[in-house]
């Protein structure tokens, strides 16, 4: 928190607020095991073969940093 001092006025504080939006989508992939499936989907995501859109929105959180 940063405190600002202003002459003749009440001091006002500045706060840092983090906004976190969560998007979610389930991707089906064939693999021999869970680890391989996870690696495949991570690669698909990095290569933009899987893209999350606003329709995939599920939650918003606000976090105050002190």
Question: What does this molecule look like?
Answer:
With 66 residues, this protein is an alpha+beta fold. 20% of the residues lie in helices and 35% in strands. The chain has one domain. The protein has one helix at residues 34-46; strands at residues 2-4, 12-14, 16-23, 57-65. Strand 1 and strand 2 (12-14) form a beta hairpin. It is elongated, with a radius of gyration of 21 Å. The model has no long low-confidence stretch (mean pLDDT 91). InterPro entries: DpnD/PcfM_C. Residues 16-59 form the DpnD/PcfM-like C-terminal domain.
Please provide a brief summary of the model:
It is built from one helix and four strands.
Low-confidence parts lasting 5 or more residues at pLDDT below 50? none
Radius of gyration, taken over Cα atoms and rounded to an integer in Å:
21 Å
Our measurement of the CA-to-CA distance between the termini, rounded to an integer number of angstroms, reads 6 Å
Structural class: alpha+beta
The profile of the biggest β sheet is: 2 strands, antiparallel
Q: How would you describe the shape? A: elongated
Helix content: 10-25%
User: How would you spell out the order of helices and strands?
Assistant: EEEHE
Beta-strand proportion? 25-35%
The overall pLDDT average reads: 91
Please count the helical segments: 1
What is the strand arrangement across the widest sheet? 1-2
- What's the number of structural domains? 1
Q: How many strands in all? A: 4
């Amino acid at each position: 928190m940063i405190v600002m001092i202003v002459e003749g006025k009440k001091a006002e504080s500045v706060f840092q607020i983090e906004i976190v939006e969560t998007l979610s989508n389930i991707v089906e992939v064939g693999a021999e095991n869970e680890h391989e499936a996870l690696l495949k989907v991570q690669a698909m995501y990095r290569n933009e073969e899987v893209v999350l859109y606003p329709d995939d929105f599920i939650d918003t959180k606000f976090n105050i940093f002190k």
